[in-house]
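User: I'm curious whether this sequence folds into something compact or stays loose and floppy. Could you predict its structure so I can see for myself?
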Amino acid sequence: MTTDQNLMLYTKLTGFRLVVLANHFGCDSEFSRELHDRLAEGLEAAIAQIQAIMALESSLLTDNDEFAAYQLEGAVEIFGRFTINMLDELEIDYETHEYRINGGGWRNALTADDNEVEVNYPKLVALSDNELGSLALIAREITLETGIPVHAARANYIL
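Assistant: Here's the prediction. I'll summarize afterward.
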């Protein structure tokens, strides 16, 4: 991305953050406040990454430093995979049959009895627009305008 594109992305992310913070005042439940806080934190993290990318680009313009070019390439690659998770994040290790939710401790998904061994991982179930309230439209707009996916899902055991 060029410096102009990064500046435009920075401006959009900052604007969305302000919208989320303004919407926070209208929250009528603790759950809604938590979702707003998590989205604002995700936007702040994206803004910080864009600022770091712009700083590296600036240093390249003045110094033409090979190490800065290497750092910039890595930062751009990492940002390309950036996702905002408003609720739960699920990691699964299929080799060990373990999972963890929101970076917590690893848990074993294997259960066994006399007849069989079963592997039961939780699934991520997306929140409905009704559960998201005013954030449903904002989350979609963030993804459309910036290309950053916004996920709002909870870990659930579906048997």
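Summary: Residues 30-63 form the longest helix (34 residues). Helices lie at 3-24, 30-63, 66-80, 129-132, 135-146.
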